[in-house]
Amino acid sequence: MKAADLGLLRLPGSPTLSPDRRHAAVSLKRADLGDDRYYADLWLAAVDGSTPPVAITSGGLDTDPVWSPDGRQLAFLRLDPESGPQLHVVPADGGEPRRVTSHPLGVAEPRWSPDSGSIAYIARVPDKGRYVHPVLLTAASEPPRRITTLRYRADGLGYTNDRRKHVFVVDLADGGITQLTSGDADHQHVAWSPDGTRLAFASARHADRDSVPARDVFVMTLADRATQQVTTTSLRAGQPAFSASGDRLYFLGAAIGGPLERDVLQPDGPVGRRALRRSASPTADLRRDGRPGRTSGRACAGSGQRWGAHDDRTPRCGRPGSSRRPGEIVDVLAGPGQVIGFAAVDDTIVAAVADDTSAGELEGPDRRRREDADFIRCRALVGNVGAADAGDLGSGP
């Protein structure tokens, strides 16, 4: 491979599935050697492969698509060179994207409310007088800092103690933006309750967080912003997800001070918990029914070496007619390669997968070939064919 070949690669991000499971959307990133910059467009693909994929955005750096629960819109992040990624929405069938945020340091983690009327997200809030344009995203020309903690910067980012991450919600009807958290702590991994009245998130708010690398899960009631801590500062917890009934909360947790393991935990109350899965590989993502932050008995979790599915019902990813124990973990995609990201709605799963022959393809279930397989096999929905431009990308069986 030569340097000039870098412009031929298409790098898919994590996909999102429409609620009706008919379409998947994914960001395809490419390097433009002439412009000396990256571009990323959002592509829409039929899950059954019946029609060629089409681009629904172009000309920017568009990533992290998330389908609205009503199926009518996609939220995504578009890079603003002066402030970082900003939240946009676009009709699912194509149209002009609408920008809905203008934070000085960009945003991350967009999550739709159940009624599709609002989006929760994470944004860094700079201390007063810092990170003012034209400083942009660097702290090199900022005034000196007085550091009194051990944890004050991160690789690839720089200083963090003067730009904490907080939870925001934007109302799409009137454009109003509300900041829900504050203080000298980072907040992340926001998730809606099924009725839209509560938000869960993860944060390290304990006084000795500088020396104890724990992180807790909190639940906020939006009506009065009352916040309850639901874990006991004994794990590095994150990525919470409400059950479909809203009375249980699932999350990922890593033991602190021990081997690097991650469990999917189901709290039976503020203190009690029960492990649903333990993986020797660090678990990367927790999604249920394709909507991060909600579950109805089926869960998909990704690990460093493989990704599998947990199903409280008869698994739909095994050979037809097979029977598995409730709670048994089933690999739905295994073998050499890397799962870049995935999305699941009920029994439909799509994944962006890379291996030694491709920088990444969006793959979906091929039920025509399941009669001789223990696990779901996939067919390419969006290929990585080394095209000169994104318009040459195609689909195939």
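the 2nd protein, sequnce then structure:
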Amino acid sequence: MIRWSASVLCGLLAGLAVGGGSLAAAQPTPGDEVFAWGDDRDGQTDVPPSLIGRTVTAISAGGYHSLALTSDGQVTAWGYNNNGQIDVPPSLIGRTVTAISAGRYHSLALTSDGQVTAWGDNTDGQTAVPDSLIGRTVTAVSGGGFHSLALTSDGQVTAWGYNTDGQTAVPPSLIGRTVTAISAGAIHSLALTSDGQVTAWGDNDDGQTAVPDSLIGRTVTAISGGAFHSLALTSDGQVTAWGYNNNGQGVVPAALAGRTTLAFDAGDSHNLAITRVAPPVITTNPANQTAAPGDNVTFTADATGYTTVQWQRSTDNGATWTDIPGATTTTLTLTAVTTTDNGTQYRAAFSNTGGTVNTTPATLTVTPTGNGDAGGGGTEPAATSGPELAATGTPLHTLLALAITLLIAGTAMRSRPRTRRDPS
């Protein structure tokens, strides 16, 4: 097999019939393999043996031909060749190519010095790189049906080739704005600006340039133009599609709901996406609880997008956590808590295939009653009778002895006989 750096993307070799899309791989891994399938009437899925043992870092599929870029900056092309679209120009030999894009019957390459080379069908001037790009640094290229786009380092777009529907007439609304990405459809064009907004122009017979209102106020991070439809990826990993929809390419399938899209591309009448399930999102954190010994206590938590939940406890201020057996619902009830539970923390762990998210911990405080009883709540004042005596700190037995002595003395005085004193 041929080594490549994200084999799942290689379906693009068989699928991007017009869109001129290309996807660069992130980190090549030894042992990755490239696969191409689909229509092979022109050899477009016959990956050349010349790629064996080489690392491919980017691919792009045209109408009926395919391009590959290897880690040494060289381009390999194969498939339909009615207009020389797979005849890589000798001018690229010895130069380092950093990006590639295939149109329907033409090809584009961007070299490390920021210059564009184009070859193949030039019936509509799509391979005639404009003189206006001379001396400027190009950072991205995109091949459409019969037109081409280039993005320069100053964030400006240059378009050339077939213009029957205005697909090469860059809108004045882009003047003074910084464009960060471009994508050419069959007969329309897309641009993404630094503020995360999409501008589209060209053919709109199928609504492919009518950017949806649902994107207003959202930040778009990537775009892709199909034959007669368009795609946008927002910062929350969600895809928006619009335009021609004869095969469902203009709508986002329900299967993508709740998943984060990492990369995507639009083909002639289909789309590809690499997705990841988004982790759950916590909506309710458990609250701290205070109870008396013997009370029952309930903690509640909730999240969206989870498949399992597990409550955990920590007795060392959150340093370590252990699962509570059987505590697998959104509520946790503790029966007859004791003072040994005081200070224990509890949290819920919500999980799905995208990861695990923990709630913030809740602390249980168990406060003993004043008389040591299990029930009640608080200490009642001691009952008193008669006037209150100020506390003096004298021991009780001393006070009792003094009281007895006074009592005896008083009794003796009352029992003494009374005598009359005669006057002298």
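Residues 7-277 form a domain with the Methylamine Dehydrogenase; Chain H fold (CATH 2.130.10.30). The two ends are 149 Å apart (CA to CA).
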